[in-house]
Amino acid sequence: MARRPGGELASRPLHFFWICDCSGSLQADGKIQSLNNAIREAIPHMQQAAAENPNAQVLVRVLRFSDGAQWHVATPTPIADFKWTDLQAEGVTDMGRAIAMVAEQLKIPPMTDRALPPVLVLVSDGQPTDDFGEALKKLMDVPWARRAVRIAIAIGDDADHGPLRAFIGHAEFPVLQANNAESLVNYIRWASTAVLRAASSPASPGLDSTPALPIPAPPTTSAVHDDVW
User: Of 3, 6, 67, 104, which sits most exposed with the smallest number of CB within 10 A?
Assistant: First the structure.
C-alpha cells in the first residue's frame, strides 16, 4: 500500500459495471459464448491492473438484460474475489431497464463523493425494445453517471449504434465494433485494463472536478477475418 506522512494512503472505491445484452439473438454464431469467454479471459488482466494501483478499490458488478433486467452479480465484489459465471441468451432487448437500474446505483447513496469515476461497459448486439431514451435521461441526471467512463461495444454488423452512441455521449469517441470473437476479446480486455488503469489513477478527478477523465485510445482490430458476425 502506498504511504504518505502520517499513515497509509486510503484507497478510493472504483465501481466497474458490465452491462450485458443477453437477448435471444446472441445465441446465433456463438456470440454469447464469445462474450462469456472474453470476460472470463479478461479477469486476470483486470486483477493485475487493479493490483498495480493500491489507491483504488475496484468493485465489480454485472447486469444482464433481455426480458427486463436482472443483476447477474448484484453485490459490489472486490476484483480479487471476482469469478465469472456464464450468461445465457434468450428474450428481447430491454436495454432501458438496465440503464435505469444502473442509474439508481450511481446515486449518493449508495455511491460516495470520494469515489473514483465509475466505469460502465455496455455490450449489445441489437436495438432496445423498451424506452431507452427515458432511461438514458434518468442516467444522465445523476452526477456520477455524467462523470463515469462510458464504453459501448457493438457485437455484429446489425447492432444499433444509435443508442450506444447516445450512451457514450462523446462525439469524438466511437462505438467499438466487434465483428468476430477476436475483436471482442481485444475490446473487452482493453476496457478491463487500459480504461481501468486510467480510472484508478491517483490523479483521477472526483465528483466535482473538471475536466472529465480522458479515455485512452482503444485497440485497432483487423478488418479481415474468416469468422465474421
Answer: 6
Give the contacts of 84 (CB within 8 A, at least 6 positions apart).
36, 39, 40, 43
Among residues 177, 160, 36, 174, which one has the least CA distance to residue 96?
160
Q: Which three cell numbers stand for residue 150?
A: 462510458
- Supply the DSSP symbol for 175: P
What whole-number distance in Å separates Cα of residue 124 and Cα of residue 42? 18
* Closest listed residue to residue 74, CA positions, set 89, 88, 59, 58: 59
Per the listing, cell 462523446 goes with 170
- In this structure, what C-alpha cell is assigned to residue 166? 447516445
Give the pLDDT of residue 47.
97
Q: Kindly compute the dihedral angle of the four CA atoms of residues 219, 170, 184, 18, in this order, to the nearest 10 degrees.
A: 120
Contact 159, 125 (CB under 8 A): yes
Q: pTM (2 decimals)?
A: 0.91
d(CA 161, CA 179): 13
Query: In this structure, which amino acid lies at residue 228?
Result: V
The distance between the two most distant Cα atoms of the chain, rounded to a whole number of Å, is 58
Give residue-wise pLDDT tens across range 87-137.
999 999 999 999 999 999 999 999 999 999 999 999 999 899 999 999 999
* Residue 212: all three cell numbers together: 472529465
CA dihedral 206, 207, 213, 215 (to 10 degrees): 120
**Angstrom distance (rounded) from CA 119 to CA 196:** 7
